[in-house]
Amino acid sequence: MPARCRHCVRCDHCVFRMEHHCVWTNCCIGGHNAGYFVMFLLSSLVMTLNATWLCFKMLRKYVEMKGLWAAQYVDDEGMMHPMDWPTIIQHLFMSFPRVVGLGCTSLLLSAPLTGYVGFHLWLLCTNRTTYEYWRLSKLRQKTRIESGRESFHLSKKMHLYDDGVDEVSGVDGYYTGMPPIEDCPSSISRRLAWNGQFYDRGLWGNLSEVLGYHITDTLRELRRKVHPQMEFRPQ
């Protein structure tokens, strides 16, 4: 199997530069559509932020137009009190429940979505995938256990991809990937862990690989080199 390919059990086919299987889009995110997925995340973030801004802007204009901050309210005992935040929020919720609900929901969604978009932009700029990131995290933990020192930290710029024997060994011994880290001596595996920047081509090179037009040509060239029994479907 070619390097950076992985079999998706949900779609039942192999994906080049496997990112992850997205349940929201119901498809695998890979080398052929990773750029579109990033644009989908960015557009979703822009829409949630825009909805939040429009909702709260409308509510603020209503408060200013009605002059609610200069008004007073009467409590249950008949006492007059100056306007405060809890009373205004209660009044807005009773007057515009859908607008307040939409604004609060968009605000809550935009917070985790911002972090998710930032994470994928970081993966995009470093030419990594989600699967590779979590594999490297497992390698860090395994290295700490083997070294016996919890203070042992790997470089932040590492990039290691290890799919194990079943994923890098092809049919009938056909091999195009890197050897599994478990089969390497400890000194070699540690050196691979420290110098695992296999796919980082720099910022512009990484952006060009994921978002550039030549990704289709790369898939065609890779398909010509793949054994006929190892056909994979680009996603």
Automatic annotation (TrEMBL):
Topology relative to the membrane: Multi-pass membrane protein
All copies of domain Palmitoyltransferase DHHC, residue ranges: 2-135
InterPro entries hit by this protein: Palmitoyltrfase_DHHC (IPR001594), PFA4/ZDH16/20/ERF2-like (IPR039859)
Cellular component aspect of the GO annotation: endoplasmic reticulum; Golgi apparatus; membrane
Note on domains (UniProt): The DHHC domain is required for palmitoyltransferase activity.
GO biological process: protein targeting to membrane
Transmembrane segments: 34-56, 99-123
Compartment list: Membrane
Organism in which the protein naturally occurs: Calicophoron daubneyi
Name of this protein: Palmitoyltransferase
